[in-house]
Amino acid sequence: xxxxxxxxxxxxxxxxxxxxxxxxxxxxxxxxxxxxxxxxxxxxxxxxxxxxxxxxxxxxxxxxxxxxxxxxxxxxxxxxxxxxxxxxxxxxxxxxxxxxxxxxxxxxxxxxxxxxxxxxxxxxxxxxxxxxxxxxxxxxxxxxxxxxxxxxxxxxxxxxxxxxxxxxxxxxxxxxxxxxxxxxxxxxxxxxxxxxxxxxxxxxxxxxxxxxxxxxxxxxxxxxxxxxxxxxxxxxxxxxxxxxxxxxxxxxxxxxxxxxxxxx
Length: 264
Known about the structure:
Blueprint: E1 3-8, H1 16-31, E2 35-40, H2 46-57, H3 63-70, H4 72-87, E3 92-95, E4 102-104, E5 113-116, H5 119-126, E6 130-134, E7 137-139, E8 145-147, H6 152-164, E9 168-173, E10 179-180, E11 192-193, E12 195-197, H7 198-206, H8 214-223, E13 227-231, E14 240-243, H9 245-263
Parallel strand pairs: 1-2, 1-9, 2-6, 3-6, 9-13, 12-14
Antiparallel strand pairs: 4-5, 7-8, 10-11, 13-14
């Protein structure tokens, strides 16, 4: 039995049909005797809609209330996913950031995680439930809702994987099946990487890559959390591993040595 953290981005949960596909994958993972923690973003376009509403009322918006508004999208998607998993016959429960006490500082819209209380998650897993966590959300020491910045659900997933000692941290994307050398939508010659180091991934993020949130990669590097970027429509595909430099080099040496042996 393994503990798997799976994160699904906004395009992966953009409709009820897509949420059902995600739920089916969670159920399939559970049936392989794994414990699952699924972290979800808001449905595609929802956060932009909420931002537009907030700025229409007040521009610039009040920082505290802005986080109250923009964090609500993940509440909807997490509840929908938990219900869909239940409808497929597997018990499930959703948690919001304040329910598992993802404690952050009070820098609204770009909060940093200070600690996570994992007791409710462990209790739910002990009851064989698939746990669904609203990404992007936190709460400060005074109980105010906070958010972790754009792409913050990546950070939620990596932080939970670190705290829970997960065996895998899988970040699922609907539009790509891994990390490419450049944007495959722009450059047809883009090559998918099987492995990439944290530092290389951070460099790509600094150059504009939006595959992973830079802060999530920094957190993964600090706590040695291997990230596996995979495709939601094609979860059986290998995807791309984001690892520390030593493990990337070890993997490359194995590939090279295997090729040498086969050529003898």
